[in-house]
């Protein structure tokens, strides 16, 4: 895939964030990787969606160095770039990463709570709870904050499969989601916001309610994922 | 009614789900029955609303077998088809069925609680609480999940009239609604979401509040339903 | 004012309900009185906003008798007509009445609670709490329900000035608002919904919070109302 | 800057309030100062956004005297003008002020609570809690209410930097925000509403949750503000 195509896909995925109501102003950022070339394209830092063009996406390698892709003046990449590259380096299967401060998912992050699996809407997309990272130590914050945000996320998946729960809430911060490409990571960001909203309503309505039974959770997850899936059209 | 007409009505009812904000992406499905022909038309599985045409609706009989209605490649019907056909087989008067994961109704489903009749908005459409099914046993889940979802709903109406409460929330899952045709079942899905939202707000504001007095409930329900109704224009 | 003009104003006020998001489907109704002629125009019963024309508004006298205003087939007036005429007969200064089931105001009605004055947004429009009627007795419900709804509202204002609190929530039901004409009664319905929403959020955030201090309440109310008002432009 | 330019900027900032959904009807007002000339432009009192033109903005000096800027009939300035001028006189660095009754920020004001810093969305814009003023004494209310609203706000910042927390909620009332110009003060009003909404959700979900760790708060605030900031593009 050419840099031009990669930037176009990342640009469109970033615009989708705005269209779906997940971000205001310059909030949020989406990236996509080209593993063959060892580079990602990512939204530039602090640029309004209205003024952005596909050409403004920044190409960086996995050590966060800017790779000049165009003759035009290169912009500074998202301040969260190191979190994105950390995830690409550690989660081998993912191709796109999205970060938002979407309202309900952020409320769970601020409450420092994982989002329990309370129903089939959740089970259709995530196997088990949406994990919440541990809080960062002061030392981590001061060392290399954005890199360490990635470290906290990866630690959180030490015994979890990032493909089975393609999303996380970072304690005190906000969500990150991922998928096979930029578009799919945005899709997961939209799903997460809806799951988070339903879970908020369920918990405030019935604080002591049980999580979804394991058998139903398995049923819903595996009718959409894996070799026995039967949801959707055959390819 | 021809297959073409049946598909057209079902297609439009499905689009209405999206216009009314009850679904995102491929969530939700609506069907309608032609009892003379013994078939239903239903939304195809996992197809985006934007890409769908009336011709993509799938015709299946009441044993869930696809009846080829067009020369075009037939799509796989909604994965919830067996729940729809189960309801048509057991609720003799209904002509349309809608399934959504609308946010507030799903919160009640996830809380595994019936929606109490707290006011006249509710009483105008549903006589008594909106029932919540019992949870499925593990055995049911493994046997034939979508069929058993229908079984749970029908059981829930053993002593209730499905015409007087044309809606249900399935515990841990989401709502199903029905009516004389596809359009009316969507109408009930919209009403349910509004009733569910009002009941959520009422319960979180005043957790100990009483349900609506029986006399008012009767008054509102019967001024709109049955032979003494006086709401609306004479036909 | 001719019947045609009266119907036009009432028609437009009814459409405003929909534009402001206070109603779905055929919910809600607005009327306006011509006190010289002793008649009101009111929305017909159960007609969709999309299909309604100004000519469909129904002219009835204060004893709820239809006065034929046009050659066209007269429609049945709103099923809540008797509540409207009851209010016009007892509240001498009002010229328009609106009834909705707007979500937050209805939640307070369903909780059977008056809406306390918690801030200046409220005090700008309503002096003191928005009252909540007592529940109706079974006998009232069976006698003449819509008339008795008016009776409950009027009773609620035995020691209150309907001009200083141009709105009420009817216990277990929903709000009624009024004003000098139909448009102003709709304006008050919009304000009430916003006040009700703010009060819901305030109470669920801080259940034990105090109401607004009397001095601030007086200040805000009287800077907008009465002979010493200084808000807005001089007429 | 000419009066015409100043009015144009203030007019556009006021319209932005409506576009962003922070106000209904005539709610809200924005002003901007020209410190060289010692005047501000501010929205006229009680005029609907639909009927307003740039020319209707009112020019007043810092003692609240109207300075006739145009040949057209001068309108009465916002009834909150004295609060605006009080803030300009005491906060030397600010160039624009916005007042709204946006829903969630107003709920915190009505609860008479500061908005705690619960996450990085907040820390990106405000250093520490969004303060809540003390309630006004009855004497203050009666003396000169709008001026005293300014007094309460300035007192609240006796030991706080108004540049580090460019916003406040006035107890029992609603928010005021400020910035280097009118547009930036509106930007802060939008941010405040989102922060207030997230904090409401977080507190109702987990009432006992901790505030954000100091190290993370410092990190987020200072990566966007001050001489070591690295968010956004270099100027």
Automatic annotation (TrEMBL), chains A, B, C, D:
GO terms for molecular function: aldehyde-lyase activity; L-ribulose-phosphate 4-epimerase activity; metal ion binding. Pfam families: Aldolase_II. The lineage of its organism: Bacteria, Pseudomonadati, Pseudomonadota, Gammaproteobacteria, Chromatiales. Its EC number is 5.1.3.4. Transmembrane segments: none annotated. Keywords: Carbohydrate metabolism, Isomerase, Metal-binding, Zinc. It comes from Rheinheimera riviphila. SMART domains: Aldolase_II. One of its GO terms (cellular component) is cytosol. Belongs to the aldolase class II family. AraD/FucA subfamily. This is L-ribulose-5-phosphate 4-epimerase. It comes from the Bacteria.
């Amino acid at each position: 895939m050419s840099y031009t195509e990669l930037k176009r896909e990342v640009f469109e995925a970033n615009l989708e964030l705005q269209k779906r109501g997940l971000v205001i102003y310059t909030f949020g950022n989406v990236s996509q990787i080209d593993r063959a070339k060892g580079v990602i394209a990512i939204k530039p830092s602090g640029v309004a969606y209205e003024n952005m063009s596909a050409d403004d996406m920044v190409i960086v390698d996995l050590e966060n160095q800017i790779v000049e892709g165009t003759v035009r003046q290169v912009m500074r990449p998202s301040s969260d770039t190191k979190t994105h590259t950390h995830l690409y380096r550690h989660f081998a299967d993912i191709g796109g990463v999205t970060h938002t401060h979407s309202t309900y998912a952020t409320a769970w992050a601020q409450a420092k709570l994982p989002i329990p699996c309370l129903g089939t809407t959740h089970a259709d997309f995530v196997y088990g709870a949406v994990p919440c990272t541990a809080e960062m130590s002061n030392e981590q914050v001061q060392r290399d904050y954005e890199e360490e945000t990635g470290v906290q996320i990866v630690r959180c998946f030490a015994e979890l499969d990032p493909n089975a729960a393609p999303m996380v809430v970072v304690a005190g911060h906000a969500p990150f989601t991922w998928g096979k490409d930029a578009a799919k990571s945005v899709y997961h960001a939209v799903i997460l916001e809806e799951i988070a909203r339903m879970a908020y309503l369920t918990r405030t309505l019935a604080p002591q309610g049980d999580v979804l039974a394991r058998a139903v959770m398995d049923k819903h997850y595996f009718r959409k994922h894996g070799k026995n899936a039967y949801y959707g059209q055959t390819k």
